Automatic annotation (TrEMBL):
Family matches, as Gene3D superfamilies: Alpha-glucuronidase, C-terminal domain (3.90.1330.10), Glycosidases (3.20.20.80)
Pfam families in UniProt: Glyco_hydro_67C (PF07477), Glyco_hydro_67M (PF07488)
Organism: Pedobacter psychrotolerans
One GO cellular component term noted in the UniProt record for this chain: extracellular region
The protein, known as: Alpha-glucuronidase
Example GO molecular function: alpha-glucuronidase activity
Residues of the Glycosyl hydrolase family 67 catalytic domain: 103-415
SUPFAM superfamilies xref list: (Trans)glycosidases (SSF51445), beta-N-acetylhexosaminidase-like domain (SSF55545)
Lineage of producing organism: Bacteria, Pseudomonadati, Bacteroidota, Sphingobacteriia, Sphingobacteriales
Domain Glycosyl hydrolase family 67 C-terminal as annotated: residue spans: 416-647
Length: 652
């Protein structure tokens, strides 16, 4: 447990390393635990004029929305205590970054900005690469030590600093045990520690809980006893945690129980739970990540399952949709569900943990991936109907707006395994607060706060610039050496780290193999989802549908996602598919080699500990990028029967 303490002491305080240089006097007419934290942060981190007078002001200004705020020279204005806290963090960030002391207003894009922890109750973390769960150890030990308490405070502080205001404490592959009294007691205690940081607690629930822990004979959502069981359970939870956020549900997906087990629908299931939490103001986040063993292209299934339920869900239900229609691949087109629903609100689910992007071994700044998704145009209500606008209430005027990120946090001393993975936690929070932010600015902020002293400008050219370029390029590099040109899910089975494009197995469902996705043959490569194939393009609105449908107009980054393309097909740069594929894989490897050089050059500009840690991870990444390239090219070559161009590096 002492590793927990080390997080603060060893300078592993994430992006929050500001230490006050000057004194500030705070004037506030109100007192509360939230405001106490704001005051404490200001005392700890104030870098403005010495002995400055700063005022908290509760304002009815209509331009301030929700927990938004307005900063004026010596005033933080907000409607709520949390607004003051978020304004405080923004003010301190601006001071740290050396930004001009000018008026600044900001309102959150989404009202609920939530981390999803895939933490199991035995302490393991599904798709977690940074140690153990910070919340759960095992059934026998549900205590909260002083070290835990301090850790949760650091966690709360980090989240509040970027505006994250909710956390789901357990895995969506949920154990029903989380709803038993001993666990709920711990949930209550955690909620108590996180509350002043503005974090609402939510739980993932298992649909068959009424049977497994409730001893009922069924979990049928239309059964009166089942409905009562959930209503009573909700009441029990709200007695312990009055501001409990609600339930997250993975139902009838990958073997999880759900309403369909009883011949009922997702609507029946979601609404039953929604009724249970509604009296207390709770919500239900119902995941749309469903796919059955069927002949139907897996990427079409969630849309087909949910579209016709639009408008049938209770008001406190929101559909949680992964950014792409498959599963958090290095690159996917956006999920068509974002532009599909007219009445039912939809929330994006991003994956902060790098399940498919090198885990905590590789450097991948995911902000660019999320920005790409948020800015994608669904054309739902004409041009400009971006995923951001479809989900943040701009287009639907739906009062329930939310966004989720699958956390990459664990018990590791640096929280996230890879130091640069901290930037993804940071970026998720910043984009959840403001979905118009640019990755470039987010990276800049994060680098300065994580590695530089307050206001430091001397390292701009030698450090900030090259490191920022590396971050901004990192996701594209991974796309290049893993799955360029729209390739997807050719990962080794199970762990999802390395390549296995050859993976085929007639004994398991086809969509759990790699050959299902790339469909390599002697003619070409790629999954035909155009109108002559699975026709998944039909789920997109015009003019996007036709653009994707037509091989000549389909953006090349999605080419093999939507088309089976002949090896000899000429791409825009004049190269044929096989040749271009070789160059893309090679480019990816070369990009990582360049990252290594970039990082080696900053030696001395960053502390030795973090320098070495990152250097060593980049070596691993470079080696593994090479493996990806060699494996994929040598395998695809058995179909293309062509040489790898001689001006690129030979397979090792
Ligand atoms: O990405 C896949 C993962 C599973 C995960 C599932 C989901 C929590 O491989 O580990 O389960 O998606 O999102 O439900």
């Amino acid at each position: 447990t002492c590793t927990y303490f080390a997080k603060a002491e060893d300078g592993h305080e994430l992006w929050l390393r500001n230490k006050s240089a000057t004194n500030v006097n705070i004037q506030t007419a109100k007192k509360s635990p939230v405001l106490d934290i704001a005051i404490n942060e200001l005392k700890k981190g104030w870098l403005g004029k010495n002995d400055a007078k700063l005022k908290f002001e509760f304002s009815t200004d209509a331009s301030i929305k929700g927990d938004g705020f307005r900063l004026e020279r010596s005033t933080i204005k907000a409607k709520t205590d949390l607004g003051i806290l978020y304004g405080t963090f923004e003010m301190l960030r601006r001071q740290y970054l050396g930004k001009a002391d000018e008026n600044f207003s900001s309102n959150p894009s989404y009202s609920r900005r939530i981390l999803n922890h895939w933490d199991n109750l035995d302490g393991s973390v599904e798709r977690g690469y940074a140690g153990k769960s910070i919340f759960w150890r095992n059934d026998q030990d549900l205590t909260i030590s002083q070290a835990d308490r301090e850790l949760y405070q650091l966690y709360g502080r980090a989240n509040a600093s970027v505006g994250i205001n909710g956390t789901v404490l357990n895995n969506v592959n949920a154990s029903a045990k989380i709803l038993t009294a001993p666990y709920l007691k711990k949930v209550q205690a955690i909620a108590g520690i996180l509350r002043p940081y503005g974090l609402k607690v939510y739980l993932s629930v298992n649909f068959s809980a009424p049977v497994t822990i409730g001893k009922l004979k069924t979990a049928d959502p239309l059964d009166a006893q089942v409905r009562k069981w959930w209503a009573d359970k909700a009441k029990e939870i709200y007695q312990l945690v009055p501001d409990f956020g609600g339930f997250l549900v993975k139902a009838n997906s990958e073997g999880q129980p759900g309403p369909q087990d009883f011949g009922r629908t997702h609507v029946d299931g979601a609404n039953m739970m929604a009724d249970a939490v509604a009296p207390f103001g709770g919500i239900v986040m119902w995941r749309a990540f469903v796919y059955q063993t069927s002949e139907q292209d897996r990427t079409k299934q969630a849309y087909n399952e949910f579209l016709h339920y639009d408008g049938q869900f209770k008001k406190n239900v929101i559909l949680q949709v992964k950014n792409g229609p498959l599963d958090f691949q290095p690159r996917e087109p956006f999920s068509a569900l974002f532009g599909a629903m007219n009445q039912t609100p939809v929330m994006p689910e991003f994956q902060i943990t790098q399940e498919y992007l090198g885990q905590s071994k590789q450097l991948a700044f995911l902000s660019t991936l999320w920005e790409e998704c948020l800015n994608s145009d669904t054309y739902q209500k004409g041009k400009g109907s971006t995923v951001a606008a479809c989900t943040d209430g701009t287009l639907s005027k739906n009062p329930l707006t939310a966004i989720a990120g699958v956390a990459n946090i664990g018990s590791d001393r640096n929280w996230t395994g890879h130091i640069f993975a901290q930037s993804n936690w940071y970026a998720f929070g910043r984009l959840a607060w403001n979905n118009q932010l640019k990755s470039e600015d987010i990276a800049d902020e994060w680098i300065r706060q994580t590695f530089l002293d307050a206001g430091e400008k001397a390292k701009d050219q030698a450090f900030v610039k090259p490191v920022k370029e590396m971050m901004l390029e990192s996701r594209e590099a991974i796309v290049n050496y893993m799955m360029p040109l729209g390739l997807h899910h050719i990962f080794a089975e199970g762990h999802h780290y390395g390549p296995a494009p050859w993976f085929a197995n007639t004994k398991i469902r086809a969509d759990w193999t790699s050959v299902y996705y790339h469909k390599a043959d002697t003619i070409g490569l790629g999954f035909n989802r155009s109108h002559t194939g699975s026709n998944s393009v039909e789920q997109y609105h015009e003019p996007l549908r036709s653009k994707l449908d037509n091989l000549a107009t389909c953006p090349e980054e999605y080419l093999l996602w939507f088309h089976h393309v002949p090896w000899t097909y000429k791409l825009k740069n004049g190269k044929d598919l096989w040749t271009e594929l070789c160059y893309r894989y090679d480019t990816g490897v070369q990009q990582v080699r360049t990252f290594q050089k970039t990082w080696d050059k900053v030696h001395g500009l960053v502390d030795e500990e973090r320098f070495t840690a990152v250097q060593s991870k980049l070596r691993t990444q470079s080696r593994d990028a090479q493996i990806w390239k060699d494996a994929c090219l040598l395998y695809f070559q058995t179909f293309s029967k062509r040489d790898i161009p001689y001006d690129i590096e030979r397979p090792v």
